[in-house]
Design goal:
By secondary structure, the protein is α+β, with helices and mostly antiparallel strands. The chain folds into 4 domains: about 350 residues, Aminopeptidase (3-Layer(aba) Sandwich), CATH 3.40.630.10; about 90 residues, no CATH class; about 90 residues, no CATH class; about 210 residues, Class I glutamine amidotransferase (GATase) domain (Rossmann fold, 3-Layer(aba) Sandwich). The protein is built from 23 helices and 34 strands. The strands form 7 sheets. A 9-stranded mixed sheet has the order 27-26-28-29-34-33-32-30-31, sandwiched between helices. The chain has a 7-stranded mixed sheet with strand order 1-2-4-3-5-9-6. The protein has a 7-stranded antiparallel sheet with strand order 15-14-17-12-16-13-18, with helices on one face. α20 links the parallel β28 and β29. α3 runs parallel beside α6, α6 crosses α12 and α9 crosses α12. The chain starts with a helix and ends in a 9-residue tail after the last helix.
């Protein structure tokens, strides 16, 4: 017997040795020791492809999409030969186990672990670690693969990675310079963190505004892993962070999820302790905001975790930190490799328990709210449906009835009548816990100190009336849509104006050289009333377009845009179509400041909005070139969130004012307002707190300072703003608007100008706001316009384009471009 065991061990060792000899190590393949240089994205992918070719029975590489810059997005499946053969069966069994796929599961003993690397492009050690992790799994940890499928995404953000790597490789010293003042440790604007459109992909999981996220979600929801890890980097003076996470945990997180991430953390600690490596847990990184790479998987039943290695874009290949330690890329990738392997080890040891607890997560019968009912503008409902489809969340139409429950508009219990167009989302469906997270009126906070915003409720974000009902609301499957009528020859055609869909229609018309009018006052024709902002396309304005009606019909059909035909310019109720109150829309030439001084994420939000949502041209002007820029070529200049102290020097401010007086429009967003508040010639001013008693002494203990400071913060809270919807900036809106306030900056109402939207009270509908911050919010500006000569400064205090998810705010921005102070037309 002992001889047989010995023979088996020899055979096993021989097989392992043969496998190791077959697979190229990252260093051998790359031609340099891993960690001594940064590998470009194509080199990382080439290594994964090479390993697949060397052991195709254990590695399967799949391209799941492409980035904006046409780089491939890949997943690598690593497991035993038997598991790779039965990969589709394993996937289907997992979905059947949760109820996401019909049928009985034939097995639930394989753990699925998904490891995501380099979501932030300049946190570049993780993609290096992904290669070493792949190699070690196949050469040293084969036993873990018997009951585990490991999915590796080696680079979630290849565009950002290559932006950082290419810059670093071009600028770094040889050998690398550890002095943090060296150029290789100071990235130029915009840095490698975001993707092509300068979005933070780690905040985009739920909103799915970016192509990388959209394509990833398709395959993620096909697999629904039991464990998901997002590998990151933090500042150079921080050691290593791993789970368990910090409070607040969202209340839907189960005891099992809490406990098992602690067990995983203890397993990591065992390996870190053995090497004497520093680490910390249960601090900073919480599990509340749903759009992260740890929270989204957690709310989908997985063990979602963030691992943070000290380093970030500043670290380069090596840097001297404040503790006198030279932090190297080799060290950073080694730590990430260790936690990656440790995670797989814990999943393998607990595979059956993972499957069992994962299945339990999808039982949602005990959730308080059984149905969320939404009604309102059809386009906004359809926009919400699009988001829900991305996450494979089911929804239906309400049957005609009266529903009661928590009324989002009032913040109290209430009721309203619904018809068959109302949307119903039930919580008793497999993804019901994510439904709760996205639709809950007000997220429960166990701790006010959070890493991100604390409010995101979809009814507010999409501008819909909503009720949350504790009883299931009657509903049925969605009815099919009716097709649009073909346009007849008429005097003119009127389009509604209350959604981004309408804005996209206008954009297309302008690009096709149609002349389009909009009304500043309601008018009636054909026994129908058309509200402020309604678009009017007349034959008389568009004689220059051959086969105008046919072309307009084509555009309307492509945009599914209903148009009302009018047969005369003589209105039943004035204004008539030729009235001065019905103006031509200028084909605006729009510019935006970019570069140093602007916040790259805010710039990216505007850039993405123009190119991927509004589909309208935008010119980017670098702040370094502003002094020499001929502003007379543009009608609108957008200043994204930023600090323009250096850009708007005395001479440049004078230049800007003169351009505005001549008819230009400046749209200032968020922090950009600081450039004008309290300055000569502007009525915009800061609003100070009405209660500064807390400022009179300094007796708060050191240990309590951070928590005490939270009284001055607003961490993404929702308020109800009063709206002057007779002002062109608010066309298409009701007289109130739920705004997402991202910070405590407050501005007084304009003494001269138009207070388009403002906070009349400080009631918080959702999210956290400290009392000191609330004290300064009463009667403060949300959106405003200040005239200067023939032009305008438009103030957007609360950024309507933030992360591109506050859908109901986007039309304010479009109105600012095309309708505010529109008194001239350029031929």
């Amino acid at each position: 017997m002992q001889k047989l065991v010995f023979v088996l061990l020899v055979v096993f060792s021989s097989c392992t040795l043969t496998t190791a000899q077959t697979i190229s190590s990252p260093s051998d393949f790359l031609g340099y020791d891993i960690g001594t240089q940064f590998s470009r994205n194509h080199q990382v992918i080439a290594y994964f492809k090479a390993v697949q070719n060397q052991v195709p029975n254990q590695v399967k590489l799949v391209e799941y999409g492409k980035t904006n810059e046409r780089r491939g997005l890949y997943l690598t499946f690593i497991s035993s030969e038997d598991n790779i053969k039965n990969l589709e069966t394993i996937r289907e069994n997992n979905l059947k186990n949760t109820g996401l796929l019909e049928g009985e599961s034939s097995g639930n003993d394989v753990a699925i672990v998904w490891l995501s690397y380099n979501v932030h492009g300049n946190e570049a050690s993780s993609s290096e670690a992904s290669m070493l992790t792949l190699f070690k799994l196949l050469t040293e940890k084969q036993d873990l693969l018997k009951n585990t499928v490991v999915i590796i995404d080696p680079s979630v953000n290849p565009d950002g990675r290559d932006r950082y790597i290419n810059w670093y490789n071009e600028t770094a010293s040889l050998p690398y310079d550890i002095d943090r003042q060296a150029s290789e440790h100071n990235e130029p604007w915009p840095g490698g963190r975001p993707n092509h459109y300068l979005f933070d992909l780690n905040r985009d999981w739920v909103w799915a505004s970016q192509v990388e996220t959209q394509q990833r979600l398709e395959v993620y929801n096909k697999w629904m892993p039991h464990v998901h890890v997002d590998f990151h980097e933090q500042g150079i003076n921080e050691p290593y962070y791993f789970a368990p996470a910090a409070e607040p945990f969202h209340e839907i997180i189960t005891d099992w999820q809490r406990d098992f991430q602690t067990e995983i953390g203890k397993n990591h600690a065992k390996y870190f302790d053995a090497e004497g490596w520093l680490f910390f847990t249960r601090e900073r990184f919480d599990l509340l905001y749903p759009s992260y790479g740890d929270t989204y998987p957690t709310f989908m039943g997985a063990m979602g975790m963030t691992y943070e290695q000290g380093g970030h874009g500043m670290a380069g290949l090596g840097i001297l930190n404040d503790e006198g330690h030279v932090l190297t890329l080799v060290e950073r990738l080694t730590h990430h490799t260790t936690t990656g392997i440790s995670t797989v080890e814990m999943a393998s040891k607990n595979a059956k328990k993972l499957n069992t607890e994962f299945a339990k997560f999808f039982n949602n019968s005990n959730l308080k709210y059984k149905s969320y009912v939404l009604k309102g503008n059809e386009d906004k409902l359809n926009s919400l449906k699009t988001l829900l489809n991305k996450h494979q969340i089911a929804f239906e139409n309400a049957t005609k009835s009266k529903v009661s429950g928590y009324n989002y508009a009032t913040g109290n219990q209430g009721s309203f009548n619904v018809d068959g167009n109302a949307l119903v989302v039930h919580s008793n469906q497999p993804k019901g816990k994510m439904v709760k997270v996205l639709f809950e009126p007000n997220t429960k906070l166990s701790d006010s100190l959070t890493y991100d915003i604390t409010a995101w409720s979809l009814p507010y974000a999409y501008g819909l009336d909503a009720l949350a009902s504790t009883t299931k609301v009657s509903s049925n499957r969605m009815a099919s849509k009716k097709s649009l009528q073909v346009l007849n020859d008429a005097y003119g055609y009127v389009s509604k104006w209350n959604s981004m869909k309408d804005a996209q229609f206008l954009s297309e018309l302008l690009k096709q050289n149609f002349k389009v009018r909009f009304t500043e006052k309601p008018f009636s024709a054909n026994d129908k009333t058309f509200e402020r902002g309604s678009l009017i396309i007349t034959k008389g304005d568009n004689k220059h377009i051959e086969k105008m009606v046919s072309k307009l019909n084509t555009i309307a059909q492509e945009h599914a845009q209903p148009l009302t035909e009018i047969n005369s310019g003589f209105s039943q109720k004035t204004p008539d179509i030729g009235s001065p109150d019905i103006k031509l829309v200028n084909k605006q030439k729009v510019a935006i400041l970019s570069g140093e001084g602007t916040r790259s994420l805010s710039y990216g939000e505007v850039w993405h909005f123009f190119e991927q949502q509004l589909h309208y041209p935008l010119t980017s002007i670098n702040t370094n070139d502003f002094g020499n820029t001929n502003l007379n070529k543009y009608n609108v200049l957008i200043l994204p969130n930023g600090n323009y102290r250096k850009v708007l020097s005395e001479d440049n401010m004078t230049k800007l004012k003169e351009w505005v007086r001549a008819g230009g429009k400046v749209i200032a967003i968020d922090g950009a307002l600081r450039s004008f508040a309290g300055k000569d010639g502007f009525s915009l001013s800061y609003k100070d707190s009405e209660d500064d008693d807390d400022q009179k002494d300094n007796l708060t203990p050191y240990a309590d300072r951070e928590r005490e400071y939270s009284n001055n913060l607003i961490t993404g809270a929702i308020f109800n703003a009063k709206v002057d919807n007779t002002h062109p900036m608010a066309f298409g809106y009701d007289d109130n608007y739920f705004t997402l306030k991202l910070g405590s900056s407050a501005y007084s109402l304009l003494d001269s100008g138009y207070n388009v939207a403002y906070l009349n009270d400080t009631k918080v509908y959702s999210g956290f706001a400290g009392q000191n911050a609330l004290n300064s919010l009463g009667k403060t500006l949300v959106f405003g316009e200040e005239r200067m000569g023939s032009g305008s400064f438009i103030y957007i205090v609360d950024n309507t384009l933030f992360r591109s998810f506050w859908e109901n705010g986007k039309l304010f921005f479009v109105n600012s471009i095309f309708m505010v102070n529109n008194n001239a037309y350029e031929l």
